[in-house]
Design goal:
Layout lengths: L17 H18 L1 H4 L40 H37 L1 H15 L3 H15 L9 H29 L2 H8 L4 H9 L4 H24 L11 H9 L8 H28 L8
Helix pairs in contact: 1-3, 1-11, 3-4, 3-6, 3-9, 3-10, 3-11, 4-6, 5-6, 6-9, 7-8, 9-10, 9-11, 10-11
Length: about 300
């Protein structure tokens, strides 16, 4: 009798590809430098008393008129550009990460409710999501930021601007999480262990939090990683348009906006170095996010 062919051996899990390792290392270095900016930066760009207008617009140290005390030059206010970039990256990462955290929390909660209860709850949540997705991210963020500034003049200050930006970005991004969690919750809620929990009389909140939520978090982590890069770019765009952080407490987008005014005057470094840091950070985060998506998506198993 013919024997069935043996099952193919399980594929060994390959380690991180070199590109992902490099990208993860770049993200770790930038995040660490931004978090510890007060100790890493040679100058404090937030100290208004340290501004030296006589040292404004100095070129990088590798140019003829550059100084070693300012390796990447200075901006139009005399601030050390390297130090200002570290503080700017700190603000951009904080706002981007905060927006992703808020959007993920709201999206997961609403997705669980829509997928578990269905009916009119699902209809209301998803229709609100459809309306929000019909507006571009930047347009909706500009609208929210503009309304906040019109209601309260303090919305543009360094204390409230990050909160406004986080809310403006998160209000558009939660829909992706809600849709993903809703679909996964519908699948999980039809399985036997959820039905058994219902028969046992467990409260719906406990079933969703203790039983369904742990099984739908994997795609949320992937989406959050990818959306982090988009959130950082959105914050930079808003700051570039003048509705983000104030110039006295700059982010990467604010530095690019300031430097853009001097590019055609030959003072290219004010915009170039922050833009390069933003591109490197976003590219590295996207590479890690793409790897996580491929890693956790079973449909891509055959293509890896």
């Amino acid at each position: 009798p013919s024997l069935a062919p043996p099952a193919p051996p399980a594929k060994r899990r390959r380690g991180l590809p070199p590109a992902v390792r490099i990208a993860a290392g770049v993200v770790a270095v930038i995040v660490a430098a931004a978090v510890f900016a007060p100790w890493v930066a040679p100058h404090d760009p937030l100290d208004l008393g340290s501004f030296d207008l006589m040292s404004a617009e100095l070129p990088p140290a590798f140019m003829a008129e550059g100084r070693l005390t300012h390796p990447l030059g200075t901006d139009n206010q005399g601030r050390d550009l390297f130090s200002t970039m570290l503080y700017g990256a700190r603000v951009s990462i904080l706002i981007g990460g905060g927006a992703v955290a808020v959007a993920a929390f709201v999206g997961v909660v609403l997705g669980l409710l829509a997928g578990y209860f269905r009916g009119w709850v699902d209809t209301v949540i998803m229709r609100i999501g459809d309306v929000i997705l019909s507006l571009p991210t930047i347009l909706l963020a500009l609208l929210v930021s503009g309304i906040a500034r019109a209601i309260s003049p303090s919305a543009g200050t360094a204390e409230w601007a990050p909160v406004i930006l986080i809310g403006a970005i998160a209000i558009h991004e939660w829909v992706q999480y809600a849709r993903t969690v809703r679909a996964a919750t519908m699948v999980e809620s039809s399985k036997d262990y959820v039905r058994a929990a219902r028969v046992m009389g467990l409260p719906s909140l406990r079933i969703m939090v203790r039983h369904i939520l742990p099984n739908v978090l994997s795609p949320v982590i992937v989406i959050a990683t990818i959306n982090l890069a988009a959130a950082i770019l959105t914050e930079a765009t808003l700051s570039f348009l003048g509705v983000g952080m104030p110039p006295t407490y700059p982010s990467l987008g604010t530095l690019i906006r300031i430097g853009n005014e001097f590019v055609f005057s030959g003072i290219w470094w004010i915009a170039t170095f922050p833009a390069a840091l933003l591109v490197i950070l976003v590219l590295a985060v996207n590479i890690v996010g793409d790897w996580l998506r491929d890693r956790f998506d079973p449909r891509r198993e055959g293509t890896r």
